């Protein structure tokens, strides 16, 4: 997958999350890091035709969001069905990095790191 095409899909994923996913708004940085990892990992697995681990309550919670996100991404981007797993993993990993920057590391929201919150 070329860099331009990968960047295109990264932005589509981030745009979808920002428009349609409320889970991005946890109030603490550690919550956001954990849920970004869980949901993005499971969404990637679903898009790749794999079954995520849903043995714990936390993973089942992430799984519900991941299923809905994978469905939405597939509906809005039907070409995902024709992509290979390596390409999906590549752009989803970059989308997670971008999401982490926007919602955690690059955020100016001081509540995210307030130890009293």
UniProtKB/TrEMBL annotation:
Which Pfam families does the protein's record reference? Answer: AnfG_VnfG
Reaction(s) catalyzed by this protein?
N2 + 8 reduced [2Fe-2S]-[ferredoxin] + 16 ATP + 16 H2O = H2 + 8 oxidized [2Fe-2S]-[ferredoxin] + 2 NH4(+) + 16 ADP + 16 phosphate + 6 H(+)
**EC number(s) per entry:** 1.18.6.1
The signal peptide stretch is none
EC category: oxidoreductase
State the Gene Ontology terms under molecular function.
ATP binding; iron ion binding; iron-sulfur cluster binding; nitrogenase activity
- Keyword set, alphabetical order: ATP-binding, Iron, Iron-sulfur, Metal-binding, Nitrogen fixation, Nucleotide-binding, Oxidoreductase
**Transmembrane region positions?**
none
Cofactor annotation: iron-sulfur cluster
Q: Describe its function.
A: The key enzymatic reactions in nitrogen fixation are catalyzed by the nitrogenase complex, which has 2 components: the iron protein (component 2) and a component 1 which is either a molybdenum-iron protein, a vanadium-iron, or an iron-iron protein.
Q: Describe its assembly.
A: Hexamer of two alpha, two beta, and two delta chains.
Q: What is this protein called?
A: Nitrogenase iron-iron protein delta chain
């Amino acid at each position: 997958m070329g860099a331009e095409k990968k960047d295109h899909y990264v932005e589509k994923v981030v745009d979808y999350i920002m428009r349609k996913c409320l889970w991005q708004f946890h109030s603490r940085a550690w919550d956001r890091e954990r849920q970004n990892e869980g949901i993005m990992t499971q969404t990637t697995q679903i898009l790749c035709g794999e079954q995520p681990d849903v043995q714990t309550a936390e993973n089942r919670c992430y799984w519900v969001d991941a299923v809905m996100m994978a469905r939405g991404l597939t509906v809005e981007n039907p070409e995902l069905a024709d992509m290979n797993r390596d390409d999906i993993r590549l752009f989803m990993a970059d989308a997670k990095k971008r999401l982490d920057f926007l919602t955690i590391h690059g955020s100016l929201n001081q509540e995210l790191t307030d130890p009293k919150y």
